[in-house]
Amino acid sequence: MRDAGQADEANAADATAGVHPDGPTFYSPEFQAFASEGSAAAIQQQDVFNDAFALDYVEWNPEEATMTLDGRVLRGLTVLGSFSNLSQTWLWTWDNPSWDADLPALAKLRTIREFGERHQIPELVKGHLDFSRFNHPAEGAFTMALAAAPLIGAKGVCFVTVNDGKGRLVLATDDPGLPDAEFDRLAVSRLLTRAAEVWPHEQRRVVRGFMEHHGFEIGESSAVIVVESDDGQRVTVHCPPERAKEHPEVNAVLSRDGARIVENTPARVQGRRPDGESPYRLVVLFDLDDRIITISGGVERAPGG
After folding, report:
1. Whether the Cβ atoms of residue 93 and residue 37 lie closer than 8 Å to each other
2. N or C end of the chain: smaller count of CB under 10 Å?
3. Residue 236 burial (CB < 10 Å; 0-12/13-18/19+)?
């Protein structure tokens, strides 16, 4: 059984490139934590896939678990699910009665569902999900699919229009011949910024997850602020590692009449990536709302160099 369809003009990377100006809405906290950690790496991998293919026209064969792009047959097809443009809902293929559960292209879906069960992530367990309350329903569903795809080792995802435009099918491939996204020093700031735009309330997780994915040795330090009141008294506050403003002590000090921060040593996540003779250092500073202030990186200089 072979099917074909037109790939959406908005390619898969667009689903994670600033489509949520105020952040996604109505994801569970468990999913946000999971998805944000892998978001920068997922965006980079999808970029590599998009650069390799035109993504204009796609053929797929669920019985052989293959998909064809630009005349090239790719193995390891998984039909992740479908999105209805009419009802603004997502249906994982494992819960779709129109698909034979024994098809090779559905075999790896169990991995996603079992991961969701182990980590209690409802978006990866429930078969049918309503995205109608999202600011951008289709992009919300596709962002979810992109986050789940690495769980089955996918190296690229395609969104295909089906049923005369009434829906879209999401296909993933883990063909071993496809390139893996490698660490790119020049892309670090861009990738972290893009991922932080998708997950504005999980920016620390975005940074830590990216560093862990690329083998960084990671260190963290909390913010230290000096708050001055109207009478000139100053209080030094060592903030908790995350969500400093929500901490009772910090909130109490900042809520005093006339209180103002006169000194601020920002929280940071820093990492060192061994890279032959040129280790790479990355430092990301955060404000008291855990949002990225600056991203800086560079090759570590040898002593005396």
Report:
1. no
2. C
3. exposed
Q: Which residue has the tokens 């019985």?
A: 63
| 18 pLDDT more than 50 | no
Cβ-contact 57, 13 below 8 angstroms: no
Task: Identify the residue whose tokens are 């900042």.
Answer: 254
Q: What 3-state DSSP class applies to 125?
A: coil
Answer yes or no: is pLDDT of 12 > 70. Answer: no
Sheet of strand 267-273, all strands in order from the earlier edge strand to the far edge: 217-221, 267-273, 280-286, 292-299
Amino acid identity at 80: L
Whether the CB-CB separation of 213 and 41 falls below 8 Å is answered with: yes
pLDDT, tens digit (0-9, with 9 covering 90-100), for 129-152? 999 989 899 999 999 999 999 999
CA pair distance 103, 72, nearest whole angstrom:
22
Residue-wise pLDDT tens digits, 204-234: 999 999 999 999 999 999 999 898 888 888 8
Q: What type of residue sits at position 195?
A: A
Query: Which amino acid makes up residue 161?
Result: T
- Indicate the pairing of strand 3-7 with strand 57-61: antiparallel
